[in-house]
Amino acid sequence: IKMSLGVDLSDIMQLTTSQLADVRKALEILPKGHSLTQIVSEYNKTIAETQINFLEAWAEYKEHRMSLNGGRLPKLRIHHFFEEFTTWQDASNVKAVLSWLKSKGKPKTIKEYRAELKQFFDYAARRGYWNKSPIDRISGADLPKVERAKISIWEIGVLKEFFEWLEAYHQDRVVWFAIACFAGIRRAEINRLKPEFFDLEHRRITLPYYATKTGDTWLMENLPENLWRFIDSYGLGIKRMHSNYFTNLTREFIDYYNRKYPDVPLQKWEQNVCRHSFCTYHLSLYRDATKTSLLLRHRNPAQMWQHYLAGLVSKETATAYFSIFPRAIPAVA
């Protein structure tokens, strides 16, 4: 039978009733002069081209979003994904996708891969390329647990010394760090601030959507008074500060501090130390996660509370943090 038909009937016996019905319907609508194999091959070619075009559209979308946020376009992990899963059909295999995710390195890296894949498939669904994302069927519980690193924050005495050092040697950077430490605004967002965003009379800051990471317009009120004292003293001539400059400047201060206090040397601190410090001390002072999350634009107060709970300090210590004021120096013209 195999020799006369060119097919092994045992293969046909393995097809389900639904699959056989599908083949029968396909043959009924098959264009004259074409084989089913030819049509499927052409379809797969079209799908592959659509996938390539869509990946390019996704890259443009991400690049646009990152340009709004003032950042650099990260390496698109989605390209790694489709190097492994070359068709949309392959990408629907949840078990295979989960196995691939688990092979991507450390738990934090795996989490980042899953986050970007979710963004991609959600984007695809919104534009009608995709019905159901395989990532929606993979929860965080399916992946290795990310151990939360200890949050690094400023010690009060060190921060006082830091601002005194800035006022003595880098006055043009004082307000940048005051906004970072006492308003908790992200570093990249500070670099996009303009004087017109500040209402000095009513003591508030309005961040337009194009200046924020989340793409939302945000009004920041009830900010600490010491922030405004720094702004009153040094003005709003905020210079951009990129990662390398931040690293070099903080390294310069660490060298200065360690020469002055050799018995208690400082080590390198993480670049989010200012935002983490603001959140920790603000939560410690008010014990109100909603109040703090409104300033930080954090959408989940309960999650933020859980994240910072272990690092809370006394209200007296938190009060001391927001009592760091500038020296009596007139505003810089």
Helical percentage: 55-70%
- Overall shape: it is elongated
Structural class: mainly alpha
Could you list the spans in which at least 5 consecutive residues all have pLDDT below 50?
1-5, 68-74
Question: What is the count of helical runs?
Answer: 17
How many angstroms does the end-to-end distance come to?
A: 94 Å
Rounded to the nearest angstrom, the radius of gyration is 28 Å
User: What letter string, H or E per element, gives the SSE order?
Assistant: HHHHHHHHHHHEEEHHHHHH
The average pLDDT is: 82
Widest beta sheet: strand line-up:
1-2-3
Percent of residues in β-strands: under 5%
DSSP strand tally? 3
> What profile does the largest beta sheet have?
3 strands, antiparallel
Structure characterization notes:
About 55% of the residues lie in helices and about 5% in strands. With about 325 residues, the protein is mostly helical. A three-stranded antiparallel beta sheet has the order 1-2-3, with no helix packed on it. A hairpin with a 4-residue loop joins strand 1 (about 200) and strand 2. The longest helix has about 35 residues, at about 35-70.
